[in-house]
Amino acid sequence: MVRILDTTLREGEQAPGVFFPLHAKEMAATALDALGVDFIEAGHPVAGREIAEAVKRLAGMDLRAKIVAHSRCSLSDVSAAAASGAGCVGIFLCVSDSRLDKVFRMSLPQALEAIEESVSRARELLPDALIRFTPEDTVRSEWDNVLEACRTAVLAGADVISVADTTGYMIPGVRSMGRYVNDLRDALERRGLAPMLAAHCHNDRGLALANALDAYQAGVDILDASILGLGERAGIVDLATLMTVLAADFGEGEHWDLDRLPDLYALVERHAGVSVPSFFPVIGKDVFRHSAGVHANAVIQNPEHYQSLDPGLVGREMEIALGGMSGASSVRWALSRMGIDSPDDELVSEVVRFVKIFGRKGRDVTSEDLLRVVQWCEGRPSKS
Q1: Has residue 284 been placed in a domain?
Q2: Per the structure, how many domains does the chain have?
């Protein structure tokens, strides 16, 4: 069973212009916990007083999910993360030669020493917490550096190694995330080490979900995601899409309550100021709406003709949109939803004509519009 880490409140807040006030973070954490995620990454305590307070407040809530505090590979960061009371501390350091040389001005041995000190201090301060180490930009860093960093972290007390595709570099079948996970697991096992493995996939090439599923099929223990895929640049894996695919296609998530996804996304949309695109997978308003007459006629007979996902899985229903592409079957379906079960052909034909006129003006026909059209066609226009 894979575990899900939601990082909307940490990675998501790194998206330009996104900031969640404390009350919104508490509401989101409560909703994420009810949804069934296993970890909620709440923020980086040293990034600001408000973030430190939020991590501490969320850690003090009575949630099933573990709260994760983010930390650079430094003793001061680790101490701040530990002081938050979080049930998990995520420590990160890039160990690529170029970053060590040009950014951190340290050698690999110095980096390994910093990793050992930071992880050991986290384990000392939080003996019962889960400690995660991430070699940032894992997949583009030198293999030997990554392996030594992971070995050092695990020996110092890390429970989880996160494989980070920090720039969305991986491509299934070409630069495979799954193969990387397997190779890292095998290399660590040969050294007598067996940490849990996580995957953090960015979406710069639009392949974050594909790479996360590649890692999943390689047996990764934890997958990171965020609501709307919010995060740096193009963001990361979208939470709703990931959980829905895992539930529908891989049998995961017996304890997940995916019906809660629409309300959760509405909450984040409101507070993040980022609108959910109408065509966004799983959650977008048009995902289970059918417009073209041929499509609508087919799904009215059997939704599986043009739907591979059951909208009921995420608390939604199939809809038929009335507009310029609609035909008689769409209108009959809509009328039946209004309690008009056996309209005559002449009425349907007239209604279709008016629906197409509405559609050519670039708008859908609402149920109120449809009612007024029917009243007009029947010679009983409503009083204004």
Answers
A1: no
A2: 2
